[in-house]
Design brief:
By secondary structure, this protein is of the alpha/beta class. The chain is built from 29 helices and 29 strands. It binds one RNA strand of 72 nucleotides through helix 11, helix 18, helix 20, helix 25 and helix 27.
Length: about 900
RNA sequence: GGGUGCUUAGCUCAGCGGUAGAGCGCUGCCCUUACAAGGCAGAUGUCACUGGUUCGAACCCAGUAGCGCCCA
């Protein structure tokens, strides 16, 4: 039974043969929450590290983009917790004014056939709260499923009492500072949502429209104007031309007749008209176009509204009562019959604004709304980044930040909705207004403004309102400003800039020290994921099929600053495979007696030294990458360390030692435990479930079961993050040589068709020269080479390096042709190398100008090429001779 | 129209002056008691195009083409 004794001792393990995430995840998550693993303390001595969640829409559901976002935040926070920080991932949701109201209105119409007006404001809002409760629960369940390590006791909602007080407080403060005002302006109006929108809630799409040129007036006094929005002509109050445009000089100051209306409108001269565009004359509709509004103001023109809030024409005349698009065709037909149409370009591609929420074509509309004056706030926000108080990652994103914040328009904050923070302005009977702060009562007989605030107004307060502001709470003292903000780059304008504005204004300090903007999720073909395209992947399905760790690993592994993520089900599978490999590797280490008890061996084996060095390299690499939010690279380093170094080499290389037993084996078991312990720590922030399960098994299964009920058991969530040990260059070099030797022999075997389990007698020469003499048993085990017997008759000789040769007896004919072909190919490569290096070294300019170390490197390469050529030629001769 | 980014192996992407890389896929062999969700070995590229700078360019500069994103 000599053979059996050679096997490593196999111990019992309770770990199953494959990793079954579903069984582990729910149990572990509940345990973490129960043990307060994610709870942050306001009064600890630890340094704070806080990231607030970008609050998802409470009535939405989490998609892959959220999953990516949460994974990255969670990984950062978990790592900082392991590094000893008071780490807080602060959760919450957003009331999402327009979209939530839309959803409930639709449901109300479908179920009860009622409009919100039928129901009335209070009952409608109550109904939205009910709706919110249901969907909130769902979103919380989703976050738990993907493993978000958030402090649930601190969860907030943008419409809860505290945050409502924060909203009212800042409104009052801005109002008193003269930074909130009400004015008649052209705003973006959604005729379906029946509310004002801010410019960022408008999405511009290229639509195929029609550019119609038409004639106003008659004969010499007629003038041609062009438009894509024919219906607005009903609201024209002038035609404008450039003052220097000689074609129209004679008309300036005169009036032309506006068709269908009986009105005569003046021709005015305005420098902002582009004489090159179209006919050089433009119609002016001050109430329905921002540029025209500006012209109207300069020339004191009337600004009549010609449609109502639903987009129905109200201008008296033949088109009254038509929808704006019906009116457009009706007017075209009428103009045509009057012979006023000069030309029609169709299709005419141009950008048309659509409502971000319901895709309806937005109508620019003159309307009285509330605005925030942004000039000062924008400057504060820009300065915080310019001064380096807030750093943006990746740095290229700064440009986008500045281009927005430096050109910001006043922010329209009123919305004609019922779901949201009601504007705290009360109007008196005499038309005066007061702004009511928290705890104040409006004067008798005053009525409150019916409108609510833009949702982003409340989410702009998020990094400090969630911590208790306006009260100076211990949490606020401890965690503000937050460490970092991690969010999608598509939201920089909506949200990041606005948090910067309110944070710098209300707190005197930018709300985060760093901002990391990650990419969007795309499918394998680079398309944006969407339900309509049918290419969407539901993160929860990925969790169900492959586990939460696989989902998180897949997303983090692909998160490269500055570029989008590609996601596909194959990537989830690959990630699942990694988790399973990790599971089995750890399982094997356990069965081999890996331990974390006691000190590392004082005199580790070469192989042990090597893996410890590789681990040290990996720790510093991972740390360096994570500092720069280089998630993909950090994960790549861990992936290769785990799979290539640890699983493929170290676990195999240690098998003989472990089988042998004795002090060397004890030391190796200790190193094995150490390396797995640290690998699991390093991976834990990204794949928390499988690593926790394995780590407890490895380090403290028994301690866990025996822990007193009132004290949380050990957990990887609070284990210390590894610090990099020393790099052992000698061990790295020697093992690299060993690997090269083994791979060369295996390659030869494979080329010669020798079966993997078939042993081959061989004589190895030169190992001592290569300082690998001690490793001969390992080499033999790995390459399946037997000691040469008395009848040893080598059939082939491999020159593996300039020192080591291996003579093999394949006990049969070898495939000379195959081996010769391979050698000729290798010879070709070496000869080419000799040629290129020789050329360089023969170049005076290169020798004179290239840095010494480069020249030296090329010399080394040439020498190596020469040695290779000699070695290969010798081998070829032997083969042929 | 104005910005801005991309184009490297079949696919997804690293590399951003000094020997072209990874993952997946592909080919061959292997169910070797940790793992077939696996092991061993292997093949694969006018680094979009055209010029320029440089001793040297996938990398820097200019232009061209195609694709994408943001803003009007």
């Amino acid at each position: 039974m000599k053979e059996a004794a050679k096997q490593p001792p196999i111990r019992e393990t309770r770990l199953s043969k494959t990793y079954a995430p579903a069984e582990v995840e729910a149990r572990r998550y509940a345990e973490w929450v129960a043990d307060g693993r994610f709870a942050a303390a306001d009064d600890s001595d630890r340094d704070p590290y806080c990231i607030v969640i970008p609050p998802p829409n409470v009535t939405g559901q989490l998609h892959l983009g959220h999953a990516l976002n949460h994974t990255l935040i969670d990984a950062m926070v978990r790592r900082e917790r392991m590094r000893g920080k008071e780490a807080l991932f602060l959760p919450g949701t957003d009331h999402a004014g327009i979209s939530t109201q839309n959803v409930v209105e639709r449901q109300l119409a479908d179920h009860d056939g009622l409009s919100r007006h039928d129901l009335g404001r209070e009952p409608f809002v109550d109904r939205v709260w009910d709706w919110k409760a249901t969907y909130h629960e769902r979103i919380v369940a989703q976050m738990k499923k993907i493993g978000d390590g958030v402090d649930w006791d601190r969860e907030r909602f943008t419409l809860d009492d505290g945050l409502s007080e924060a909203v009212q407080t800042i409104f009052k403060r801005l109002y008193d500072d003269g930074m909130i005002y009400r004015a008649e302006r052209i705003i973006n109006w959604c005729p379906r949502c029946m509310t004002a929108l801010s410019e960022i809630e408008v999405e511009h799409q290229d639509d195929a429209g029609e550019l119609v040129s038409m004639r106003y007036g008659e004969g010499e006094d007629s003038i041609v104007v062009a438009t894509t929005r024919l219906e607005t002509m009903l609201g024209d109050t002038a035609v404008a031309v450039h003052p220097d445009d000689e074609r129209y000089a004679h008309l300036i100051g005169k009036a032309v007749e506006l068709p269908f209306t009986g009105r005569h409108i003046p021709v005015v001269a305005d420098e902002h008209v582009d004489p090159e565009f179209g006919s050089g004359a433009v119609k002016v509709t001050p109430a329905h176009d921002p540029n025209d509004f500006a012209i109207g103001q300069r020339h004191e023109l009337d600004a009549p509204l010609i449609m109502d809030e639903r987009g129905v024409i109200t201008a008296h005349g033949p088109f009254e009562g038509l929808d704006r698009f019906e009116a457009r065709s009706a007017i075209a037909a009428a103009l045509r019959s009057e012979g006023r149409i000069v030309s029609e370009r169709r299709p005419y591609m141009h950008a048309v604004g659509h409502c971000d929420r319901c895709d309806t074509v937005v109508e620019p509309r003159l309307s009285k709304q509330w605005f925030v004056k942004v000039e000062h706030l924008a400057k504060l926000s820009a300065d915080a980044v310019r001064d380096g108080r807030t750093r943006i990652h990746p740095p290229e994103m700064e440009k986008r930040y500045f281009s927005w914040v430096d050109n910001l328009l006043d922010w329209c904050i009123s919305r004609q909705l019922w779901w949201g923070h009601r504007i705290p302005i009360w109007y008196g009977p005499d038309g005066d207004q007061v702004c009511v702060g928290p705890g104040e009562t409006p004067p008798e007989g005053y009525v409150q403004d019916p409108d609510v605030l833009d949702t982003w107004f409340s989410s702009a307060l998020w990094p400090f309102s969630t911590l208790g502001w306006p009260a100076r709470t211990p949490a606020l003292e401890k965690f503000y400003p937050t460490a970092s903000l991690i969010t999608g780059q598509d939201i920089i304008f909506f949200w990041v800039v606005r948090m910067m504005m309110f944070g710098t204004y209300a707190m005197g300090e930018a709300p985060f020290k760093e901002v990391y903007l990650h990419g969007l999720i795309r499918d394998k073909d680079g398309r944006k994921m969407s339900k309509s395209a049918g290419n969407g992947i539901d993160p929860l399905e990925v969790v169900d099929t492959y586990g939460a760790d696989a989902l998180r690993f897949m997303l983090a592994r692909d998160a490269q600053p500055g570029s989008d993520n590609t996601a596909s089900i194959e990537l989830a599978e690959i990630s699942r495979n990694f988790c399973n490999k990790l599971w089995n590797g750890t399982r094997f280490a356990l069965m081999s007696g890996a331990t974390v008890a006691g000190d590392l061996p004082a005199e580790p084996t070469l192989i042990d030294r090597w893996i410890l060095s590789r681990l040290a390299q990996t720790v510093s690499t991972v740390d360096a990458y994570l500092e720069d939010y280089e998630f993909a690279k950090a994960i790549d380093a861990l992936y290769h360390f785990a799979w290539d170094d640890l699983f493929d080499w170290y676990l195999e290389l240690t098998k003989p030692v472990l089988a042998e037993g004795g002090p060397a084996a004890d030391g190796t078991r200790r190193v094995l435990g150490h390396v797995f312990d640290h690998l699991l720590r390093l991976l834990h922030p990204v794949i928390p479930f499988v690593t926790e399960e394995l780590w407890l098994e490895l380090t403290g299964g028994e301690a866990r079961e025996q822990a007193p009920a009132d004290r949380p058991a050990p957990s990887l969530t609070v284990a210390a993050w590894p610090t990099a040990g020393a790099v052992d260059e000698e061990a790295e070099r020697l093992v690299a040589d060993l690997q090269h030797l083994v791979v060369e022999v295996r390659r030869f075997r494979s080329d010669q068709g020798v079966k993997p389990n078939q042993s081959v007698a061989a004589r190895i020469a030169g190992l001592a020269d290569a300082r690998l003499a001690d490793q001969e048993p390992l080499v033999r085990a790995f390459a399946r080479l037997d000691e040469p017997g008395d009848d040893f008759a080598p059939t082939a000789e491999l020159a593996v390096s300039d020192r080591v040769t291996v003579a093999l007896d394949t006990s049969g004919t070898i495939d000379v042709a195959a081996e010769r072909a391979r050698l000729h190919k290798a010879l070709g490569t070496a000869e080419k190398e000799l040629e290129t290096t020789g050329k360089k070294l023969g170049n005076e300019a290169f020798l004179a100008k290239a840095p010494d170390e480069v020249v030296e490197k090329i010399r080394t390469r040439r020498a190596a090429a020469e040695a290779d050529i000699a070695r290969i030629n010798a081998q070829l001769e032997r083969l042929e001779g």
